[in-house]
Amino acid sequence: MTERPERPAGPQPHHPETMAVGHGYDAAAAFGAIKPPIVLTSTFTYPTAGAAKEAHRTFFETASPDEAEYIYARLDHPNLRMVQERFAALDGAEACAAFSSGMAAISATLLATVRPGDTVVHTAPLYGGTLGLLTGLLAGLGVRSFAIPDALSPASIAETMGVAVTKGRLSVVLVESPANPTAGLADIRAVVGAANALGRSDHRPLVLVDNTFLGPFGQRPLEEGADLSVTSLTKYAGGHSDLLGGAVTGSAAAVVPVRRLRTSLGTHLDPFSCWMMLRSLETLPLRAERTARNAATVAAFLRDHPKVRDVTYLGFLPEGSAARAVFERQCRSAGSTFSFRIAGGEREAFAMLDRLRVIRMAVSLGGTETLICHSATTTHYSVAPEVRAAVGVDDSALRISIGIEHPDDLVADLDQALAAV
Ligand SMILES: *Cc1c(COP(=O)(O)O)cnc(C)c1O
C-alpha cells in the first residue's frame, strides 16, 4: 500500500448523496482499487520503536486518536476509520465511533457519561434494549431514570428534568424520536433548550438522540443541537438485514471519550462488517427515498381499509397538531416503519399474518424486504400489558417496515391477507 495523501480540512464541499459514494476511502491507498480492500489483521507493524511510542502517545493522550498510526485492531483499523469518516459526513458530524451493534453504541455512550448516583431523563417508549439497560445495569449502578410524559411539550420536558436534578446529577437526556414502535415524536430543540437552561445553574446534561428510525437522510439530530446522535446501522443504514452495527456521531470532544471506552469494552465494528457498511451506505439515499415512497402508498391503503382501525404513519399527523409542527421542522421524511391496528385482537392479527405471501414475518426493520411483526407477542413480549397499552401496543397492533419491492405487490398481499380476518 502507498501513503495516503493529506485530505484538505474544513467543511465538506459535496452533497451527502455524493459523499455516500466513496467518501472516506482513497483509491491511491490500495493499488488504485475502486473499492476498498478488507484489511483483515489483528495487529500492525511499527516501523521504528520511536514510531511505536508516538502512535501510542497520539492514540491515548491526544484529542485526535484518528491521527495515530494503527496499533491494534480493537483500538482502530483501516475499514473502521473509513466507515466512521463516511458516516460522520452523512450525519453532518465532526466525528463518529462505529460499534458492533446499535446496543453496543448506546451502552458505551451511556457508560462513558453516567456515574453512580446520577439520573437520566428519557422519552417514552424506548427501544426494549435501551430500556433494559436503564432498568437493569444502570439502575444497579444507582442511576435512576425519569420518563418525560409529553416530549412535544417544552413544559413537560423542563418539569421532568427539574425533578431529575433533585435526585442526583442529571447526566444524560436520552431521546428516541421517532420512537419504536409507536413513531411518537420528541421535540429535540426543546430538549436541547431545557438542557442549556439547566446548564446555566447546574451540570449541563448531554443530549443523546437515537436516530435509528429515520437515519441521516430523514433527520439530523446534531443540526437540531443534540450533542450525540446514535444510529443502529443494523437497520436502514446497513439496509439488507445481513449485518449488525451501530454508530455514534457528534463533535470530536463528545465522541472521543465514547471511542476510548469502546477500546476497553472491545465492541468496535469488525473489518468485514465495516466493508459491508461502506457498500450499504452508497445506496442509503436511494433506499431511504424508495422505502419512504412505498410506505406512503401502503399506509394510505391501510388507512382506508375497513378492517384497519388506525395507522401511526408520520405522514398522517393532523394539520395544526404539535406533532405535525415538530415533524415538519425536524424531519425530512416520514420514514417507512410504522404500526397499524386491525379490527379485533390477537386471533385476527395472527390470521392475517399467516396469510401473507410477499411480506415476511420477522422483527427488525429497515431492510430491502418488507417485514411485519405482531408487537405484543414478539418485540414487546416481556412488557406488561398495561404498559404496552399505554403506548398503543395492544393485541391488535402490527409493526411494519416497508422495503423496496413494488408497492402494488405489497398492497395486494395485505389486501388478500386482510380478507382472511
Ligand atoms: C434496533 C434498534 C436499536 C438496537 O440496535 P442493534 O443494532 O439491534 O443493537 C436501538 N434503537 C432502536 C430504535 C432500534 O430500532
From TrEMBL:
GO terms for molecular function: carbon-sulfur lyase activity; pyridoxal phosphate binding. Belongs to the trans-sulfuration enzymes family. This is Cystathionine gamma-synthase family protein. The lineage of its organism: Bacteria, Pseudomonadati, Pseudomonadota, Alphaproteobacteria, Hyphomicrobiales. It comes from the Bacteria. GO terms for cellular component: cytoplasm. The modification N6-(pyridoxal phosphate)lysine is found at K235. Its cofactor is pyridoxal 5'-phosphate. The keyword Transferase does not apply. GO terms for biological process: transsulfuration. Keywords: Pyridoxal phosphate. Transmembrane segments: none annotated. It comes from Acuticoccus sediminis. Coiled coil: none annotated.
